[in-house]
Amino acid sequence: LEQPLPRPMHTSILTGRAWLDELLMGHPDRCERQLGMSALEFSLLWAELAARGL
To answer: Each residue of 1-38: pLDDT tens digit?
Structure first.
């Protein structure tokens, strides 16, 4: 059987905060693949780091 052509995965033209916003508001599986954690876990980590001034 013929294998399907691979589909590009990382196609966003956004960078920085815009990329992060797109990632956090998008499909949950994509966030897990890109960051290694859920959007909720990332948000909690971000808040903790900000609270510590990091």
So the answer is: 789 898 887 788 999 999 999 999 988 898 999 999 99
pTM, two decimals, is 0.71
42: CB partners within 8 A, 6+ apart? 24, 31, 35
CA angle 50, 28, 15 (to 5 degrees): 60
CA distance 47 to 54: 10
CA 47 – CA 14 distance, rounded (Å): 23
Structure tokens at 20: 């992060």
50 — phi, psi (to 5°)? -65, -40
Any residues with CB less than 8 A from the CB of 23 and at least 6 apart, and which? 30, 31, 34, 35, 39
